[in-house]
Design goal:
The structure is a single chain. The chain is α/β, with parallel strands linked by helices. It has a 6-stranded parallel sheet with strand order 1-4-3-2-5-6, sandwiched between helices. The protein has a 3-stranded antiparallel sheet with strand order 7-8-9. Helix 7 packs across helix 8. The longest helix has 16 residues. The chain is globular, with a radius of gyration of 18 Å. 35% of the residues are buried. The mean pLDDT is 97. The structure holds adenosine monophosphate. The site of adenosine monophosphate has 17 residues, from helix 2 and strand 5. The site of adenosine monophosphate (AMP) has 17 residues, from helix 2 and strand 5.
């Protein structure tokens, strides 16, 4: 069955108040790929109803060109949603999501300043704020987040705990191309050649080299590297190729 497409907060809340089943929620920015599909499959298995949001959240982009060039594949996204049994696609406008013009925001003061936060000022404020808004609108019992964005996942888990929110955050392992490259909507912006080169990120990450060595080798291969860092029991990397910023991480 085709999913119901809802574009306003009012309608989304109205739909929600009439549901008594368990609701699983997968927030995305669209341009769906097999990584998103994995989240949606697990959501469907574990809940009676599944809600997918497709919303490119401007407040989490620190570079306007990245926001403007963010891929949009709406028609295929809807087909994928239908094939995976999604019940509702929530796709609001900016006006719907930010009636306050972003005067109010959620800020975390420690981990959000490291790794991607150190290179993308304000990014995690935007992420936490929009996720809080989406949770308040949809009120899911479970919400699914990919380990590909491990720092994001961890900050959202922290937010849910800090604000006593009644939602279970379910982590989903990273889905990769055969080459090892972590699937990402931004991969659509890579040429075939650069996509092949980008697989070096995961190959190096899992090579047993030190973080410093990996950083050097990626630079030598033409990547612009934001960081390769070991933190806790994980190794994190962020590097750009041809202006497309890619992130990945593995358990050590
Ligand atoms: P995005 O549309 O990039 O904001 O991602 C929406 C959700 O999908 C986030 O929870 C991501 O962590 C997750 N996700 C994106 N890519 C992958 C992947 N390759 N494997 C698993 N989860 C992913």
């Amino acid at each position: 069955m085709k999913p119901k497409v809802i574009r306003t907060v009012k309608q989304m809340k109205e739909w929600r108040t009439h549901q008594h089943e368990s609701i699983g929620f997968v927030p995305t920015m669209g341009a769906l790929h097999l990584g998103h599909a994995q989240l949606l499959k697990q959501c469907r298995q574990e809940n009676e109803l599944s809600v997918l949001s497709i919303y490119v959240n401007k407040t989490q982009f620190n570079q306007s060109s990245d926001f403007e060039n963010y891929p949009n594949t709406w028609v295929t996204d809807l087909e994928i949603a239908e094939s995976l049994g999604v019940n509702v696609v929530f796709a609001p406008t900016n006006e719907e999501m930010y009636p306050d013009q972003y005067r109010y925001k959620i800020t975390e003061n420690e981990f959000s300043t490291e790794l991607c936060g150190a290179h993308r000022p304000g990014h995690f404020d935007g992420v936490l704020t929009v996720v809080m808004k989406l949770f308040n609108i949809i009120n899911p019992r479970k919400a699914y987040f990919g380990e590909k964005d491990y720092q994001q996942l961890s900050l959202i888990q922290g937010m849910v705990k800090a604000y006593f929110m009644d939602v279970e955050i379910v982590p989903v392992p990273t889905i990769r191309e055969q080459s090892g490259l972590a699937m990402s909507s931004r991969n659509l912006r890579l040429s075939a050649e650069n996509k092949q080169r980008a697989s070096m990120i995961y190959q190096k990450l899992s090579s047993g080299l030190s973080a410093q060595q990996i950083e050097q080798e990626l630079r030598e291969a033409g990547f612009s590297v934001d960081y390769v860092v070991d933190k806790g029991l994980r190794r994190f990397v962020a590097a750009s190729i041809d202006g497309v910023r890619l992130i990945d991480n593995i358990a050590l």
